[in-house]
Design goal:
single chain, about 450 residues, alpha/beta, FAD/NAD(P)-binding domain, Enolase-like, domain 1, 3 domains, 5-stranded antiparallel β-sheet, 21 strands, about 30% helix
Length: about 450
């Protein structure tokens, strides 16, 4: 650390990874500044994980009200009303609270927050507005941004960013895409009473997930009244007086009140000046780094969504911890990207960790599959037809559990615990010897005895 420069580290971007890196580095005695042009907390806190989960909770209330009758509660559903502006306003209040928490965390850690848009002048100088700041290290943690395909009428198409601030809900909506964000927003809108259609170019959404999970989720989403159309894409959108006309690749035309694209995200590197400095970007536009987040310029590192690793908040947090240690600690540490648990908060939820059945077979494992499908106890009295899927992928030679997959209520909560076991290398025999918690859905993971494949 040198007193000849303004800072030891300047982090560009105050998302999850950038804030963690800044705080941990300041705690190790480094002089740290964070530059942020939008909002503290990044995508996750403001237009991602947190508000999305709040909307998912809100959307699921209708199911709970319907289910109440089976438990003796008389609720005249025709008298129940929903007010979208109230949900948005309450969500905004919570996000503002979290923004404040992030600000106080940085302040208490001794990190300087610089408001504005940054560019990198040279390997040791960051420019914000009309001011220049010198530093020993620069970390790019600017995240990613939604991409809308270049089709006629693209200016009419919303992204997830705008969905969190809609002034009112439409009667009909079209969601374009097949990943996490698309299926989650389809569930949110449908749960709030919007007639929802999801369009995806492939033959089945959620590419990369276990095939049983994908097929089961399709089945359950259709039960929710969500219209799913595969093998189709949008060719053009035209704005009418109070609606949109959507022209599809199969020749069909749809009328709708809203079109949202969830068709991918790009690394947010605009205006940073990376290529001018000789920093390499790959074919997808992500910053190229080595295993220790080092770019081709020795003083500049990068982490989070901008480098193309799994776009998950816990991944960025882990990267921030490791990079801080490497820059200002003992110089050791690396991020382990194996067996990363994840959840998709569609309805019902998906939780998954480890290898899919397809990945395990491709990797050469002799695979045993344990699979269970049932109606959760919660829905027995209510009469709801929603079902739950649980699946274990096991190495037949070693008995090691390679992957666990679930579609059903609280799948994310259940999968987090399973992730610890799989990360620790648990065997199927150890699963079998674990006492279940009865009666729960989760106990099914330790009571599946006979392989189905």
């Amino acid at each position: 650390m040198s007193d000849s420069q303004d800072y030891d580290l300047i982090v560009i971007g105050a998302g999850s990874g950038g804030v963690r890196l800044a705080r941990m580095s300041a705690g190790r005695g480094a002089r740290v500044a964070v530059v942020e042009s939008r909002y503290l907390g990044g995508t996750c806190v403001n237009v991602g994980c947190v508000p999305k989960k709040l909307f998912v909770y809100g959307a699921h209330v209708h199911d709970e009200l319907e289910d109440a009758a089976g438990y003796g509660w008389t609720l005249p559903l025709d008298q129940v009303s929903f007010d979208w502006p109230t949900l948005v306003a309450n969500k905004n209040t919570e996000i503002e609270r979290l923004n404040g928490i992030y600000g106080r965390m940085l302040e208490n850690a001794g990190v300087t927050v610089i408001d504005g848009t940054a560019s990198i002048k040279d390997p040791n100088t960051v420019v914000v507005g009309d001011k220049q700041y010198t530093t020993a290290h620069i970390t790019v943690a600017t995240g990613s941004w939604p991409v809308v395909p270049d089709v006629p009428g693209k200016e009419c198409i919303l992204t997830s960013n705008e969905m969190f601030y809609l002034p009112q809900l439409p009667k009909q909506a079209v969601i374009w895409g097949g990943g996490y964000i698309a299926v989650e927003f389809a569930g949110i809108l449908a749960g709030l009473g919007v007639e929802t259609t999801l369009l995806y170019r492939g033959d089945l959404f959620l590419r990369g997930f276990d095939n049983d999970v994908r097929q089961f989720t399709e089945q359950e989403m259709r039960k929710k009244g969500i219209h799913l159309e595969f093998g189709v894409t949008i060719e053009a959108v035209e704005a009418e007086d109070s609606h949109y006309t959507v022209k599809l690749s199969n020749g069909n035309v749809m009328e709708t009140g809203l079109v949202m694209a969830a068709t991918g995200r790009r690394a947010l590197v605009d205006g940073l000046g990376l290529t001018e400095l000789g920093i390499e970007l790959n074919a997808s536009g992500h910053v190229v780094v080595d295993d220790y987040f080092q770019t081709s310029v020795p003083s500049i590192t990068a982490l989070g969504d901008v480098i193309g690793t799994p776009q998950l908040t816990p991944v960025a947090l882990a990267q921030g911890m490791v990079l801080s240690r490497r820059l200002f600690g003992d110089g050791e540490g690396e991020v382990d990207y194996t067996a990363i648990p994840t959840a998709v908060f569609c309805q019902p939820n998906i939780g998954t960790v480890g290898l899919t059945e397809q990945e395990a077979r491709v990797a050469g494992h002799t695979v045993k599959i344990y699979r269970s499908e049932f109606r959760p106890m919660k829905y027995i009295l209510s009469g709801r037809e929603e079902r739950c899927l649980m699946k274990l992928v096991v190495d037949g030679a070693t008995d090691k559990v390679l992957g666990a997959h679930m579609v059903g209520p609280d799948a994310g909560e259940i999968t987090q615990g399973l992730a610890v076991a799989i990360k620790a290398g648990a065997t199927k025999a150890q699963f079998d010897s674990t006492m279940g918690i009865h009666p729960t859905s989760a106990e099914e993971f330790v009571t599946m005895r006979e392989p189905v494949a």
